[in-house]
Amino acid sequence: MEQPNLSEIQKLSGGDPVFEEKIFSVIKREFPVEKEQYFLNLAAGNTTKAAEDVHKLKHKIGFLGLEKGYNIATDYENHLKENSYELQEDFESILKVITDYLKTI
User: Fold this and answer.
1) Overall number of domains in the chain
2) Modified residue Phosphohistidine is at which positions (predicted)?
């Protein structure tokens, strides 16, 4: 499985450490909230709202350098819009990897 990294954030920043820290701070602050909201909407059976949550989360997945993870999130978002849970397990594995990664940084 892919591992999160800061390479995408570093590319976007052009080497500006202040910018990198701001982006990373936003991710660390927003990711847990958006993840929790995703699980709440999923538990409520609201696939439309869960798809919106996946949409928000997929951008953070991309910022953390997870190209395959971003593609899985995109596909899962589309499945949820069709009331399908295909790729749920794969997507939630990505969330777990990111959660663990954010605890180490």
Assistant:
1) 1
2) 55
In a domain, 21, yes or no: yes
**What angle (nearest 5°) sits at the alpha carbon of residue 47, between those of residues 68 and 41?**
95
How many Å separate Cα 81 from the centre of its chain? 17
| Domain that residue 79 falls in | 7-104
Contact 57, 95 (CB under 8 A): yes
Helix axes 67-81, 88-104, angle to 10 degrees: 140
Please give the pLDDT value at position 1: 76
Instruction: Compute CA 31 distance to the chain's CA centroid, rounded to the nearest angstrom.
Output: 7
| Two structure tokens written together for 51 | 């798809």
- Do the beta carbons of residue 61 and residue 73 sit within 8 Å? yes
In sequence order, the 6+-apart residues with CB closer than 8 A to the CB of 37 are 49, 53
The whole-number mean pLDDT for each consecutive block of 10 residues of the chain, a chain of 105 residues, reads 91 92 95 98 98 98 97 98 98 98 91
Q: 12: closest CA among 56, 64, 58?
A: 64
